[in-house]
Design brief:
The protein is an alpha+beta fold and about 575 residues long. It is built from 21 helices and 22 strands. Helix 15 runs antiparallel to helix 19 and helix 18 runs antiparallel to helix 19 (about 520-535). The chain is elongated, with a radius of gyration of 30 Å. It starts with 8 loop residues before the first helix and ends in a 6-residue tail after the last helix.
């Protein structure tokens, strides 16, 4: 007797549901993406208990007729792929035809939909049709999911708490709103509005509606193109970094994606602008030919493969690097943190209750205008060379003293500045070393007394295999006994009196990096290590002349705002901040 048989449609759907429906936000994602594909301009998501009790999605999209409404719950039923070749030109959020039947197989679904001419009401539970009738003629779709995993208790117990499930859905809707600023999104939980965007089509305004004014005021716009990719979006100034990657929002053809190479390009562009373990707020839109994107590698369609990834990496890296370079990034010492607490929806409620209709229009127009006017943002193309930040290079700082033996106090016509002398000199030294390493102008100074480096057998073997790394940058070494090298010459950029310490640190870096040796990272590590070691330390009092010299060198750096480790070098107290603190101004 044959052991192999064809599983039932309902069983196949339940198996597929294990990939499509992991949590309540998975259902929200699939339903909202269907609404986006239906060209909706207004999408409302209503959750009860974070979606554990009920998930409702209402849109004003194209809707469906009765025949399509019923077909939509059939496995692999889709309006988005007609022929085989369409798989290579996917421009929609969904295309597999798995979401609705998978959801319906493990829950109870009530669907109301209309295309403006005909309407339908469909009630399905556990994959079985319970009711089919006519509905109202409101164009769009209203779908409600309840009793999630009622027939698969093993999956039910893996759902998280209400707070966790609601957080996942909120985070998803925020990202969808950023990827589609032209769509109005509203999300409620237990009848309380959590997320509300205007659908204005203005990306910066959407960032403001999601993150608040304190973040939106610190965002820098960028735009660039290559032969295969167009990128556009906003990045944050380094003063508002986050402790995780969740706010790196990346979209490919308006689809939310997770891609390690894209994240690496962003992170690398912020190198030395931020400390390790801190991440920027980024909204990055990538538009490209669909044939260069493979979204068919996972049911969530968030993990993708991109052709010509090297070209895209270079485009993202150079554009973000240029954007940071060409903007003044000195953080204000005082921040109005309270602004960020007030959400856009709360501001709207205050405006609603306190003003007339005419005043509302004026206030909203003023808010919109403030969000839209970003005077110092420049749109760059990848082909542009890095420009000199004239605003910073012309900044003149007059030192007036030293606080705590560590912080230089300086002033100019705009206010008072505090400069961390160690971080500032680290940055100056780092850029000097990097310049010397990049120019590859090998200039060697001979040592009057050679330095002897004795190593373990394993370290000696590694160093011997990578000896060319040291000779290429100007070291002269020769074998000297068992597991020992004699250094008779070194690059001229190594500081006098620090020769042996510097040589030992550089050799340690070669040994540590052994198998995964990267020449670029190696040069950066050398520069960072030497810059830190050779810089003025905290609690070392330096003369007024030395302070002037350090500040003059700092403002000429490519990135004077951070030390090589990403810590800030300089912060500013504007005249207004000072007058407000001393109550000379009262607003």
């Amino acid at each position: 007797m044959s052991k192999i048989h064809i599983m039932s449609e309902n069983l196949a759907n339940k198996i597929a549901a294990g990939e499509v429906v992991e949590k309540t936000s998975s259902i929200v994602k699939e339903l909202v993406e269907n609404s986006i594909d239906a060209n909706a301009t207004n999408i409302i998501v209503n959750l009860i208990k974070g979606g554990l009790e009920s998930i409702q999605v209402i849109d004003d999209g194209e809707g469906m007729d009765r025949e399509d409404a019923k077909k939509a719950f059939g496995r692999h039923a889709t309006s988005k792929l007609i022929k085989d070749d369409d798989l290579f030109f996917i421009n929609t959020m969904g295309f597999r035809g798995e979401a609705l039947p998978s959801i319906a197989s493990v829950s109870e679904v009530k669907l109301k939909t209309s295309n403006g001419e005909t309407s339908s009401y469909i009630h399905i539970k556990g994959g079985e049709l319970l009711e089919e009738s006519s509905g109202d003629l409101r164009t769009g779709t209203d779908i409600t999911v309840t009793n999630l995993f009622y027939n698969t208790p093993a999956r039910l117990k893996y759902l998280k708490s209400e707070n966790t499930e609601s957080y996942n859905s909120i985070n998803l809707i925020e990202k969808l709103a950023l990827s589609h600023p032209e769509i109005k999104f509203t999300l409620t939980n237990n009848e309380r509005v959590i997320v509300k965007t205007s659908g204005s089509g203005n990306l910066l305004k959407t960032i403001h509606e999601i993150y608040g004014l304190n973040v939106s005021n610190k965002m820098l716009e960028f735009k660039a193109s290559s032969n295969d990719f167009d990128i556009y979006g906003f990045i944050c100034k380094p003063e508002i970094l986050k402790s995780n990657r969740n706010d790196i929002n990346t979209f490919v053809n308006n689809r939310i994606v997770r891609n390690m190479d894209i994240n690496k390009a962003i992170n690398d562009a912020y190198y030395t602008y931020k400390p390790e373990g801190k991440y920027p707020i980024v909204v990055l839109n990538i538009n490209t030919d669909p044939t260069l994107v493979d979204v068919n590698i996972h049911p969530t369609k968030q993990d993708i493969k991109l052709s010509k990834m090297t070209d895209l990496y270079d485009l993202i890296y150079k554009t973000i690097k240029n954007t940071l370079y060409n903007n003044l990034l000195i953080p204000d010492a005082l921040k109005n943190e309270s602004v960020n607490i007030i959400k856009a929806s709360v501001i709207s409620d205050i405006v609603e209750s306190m003003t007339s209709n005419e005043e509302k229009v004026n206030i909203q127009t003023e808010l919109d205008f403030k969000i839209e006017e970003k005077e110092d943002n420049k749109k760059l193309t990848a082909s542009e060379d890095i420009l000199v930040n004239k605003e910073l290079k012309s900044l003149v700082l007059y030192p007036v003293g030293l606080a705590l033996g560590t912080y230089i106090i300086a002033e100019n016509d705009e206010g008072i500045y505090l400069i961390d002398q160690h971080a500032a000199q680290e940055r100056v030294n780092y850029e000097k070393y990097m310049k010397a390493l990049k120019e590859r102008k090998v200039s060697t100074a001979n040592l009057l007394i050679p330095i002897t480096i004795e190593l373990s057998a394993s370290d000696y073997t590694i160093l011997k295999d990578n000896l060319n790394v040291l000779t290429d940058i100007g070291f002269i070494l020769e074998e000297f006994g068992v597991n020992t090298y004699k250094v008779t010459g070194h690059p001229t950029w190594i500081l006098e009196s620090y020769e042996e310490e510097s040589v030992r640190k550089i050799i340690d870096l070669v040994i540590i990096n052994k198998d995964k040796f990267d020449p670029v990272k190696f040069n950066e590590n050398i520069a960072i290590t030497l810059a830190c070691k050779m810089s003025i330390k905290a609690n070392m009092r330096i003369s007024h002349v030395a302070q002037e010299e350090l500040l003059s060198e700092l403002v000429l750096c490519d990135n004077p705002y951070n030390c090589p480790h990403g810590r800030p070098t300089i912060i500013k107290f504007s005249i207004y901040d000072l007058e407000r603190m001393f109550k000379r101004v009262m607003n």
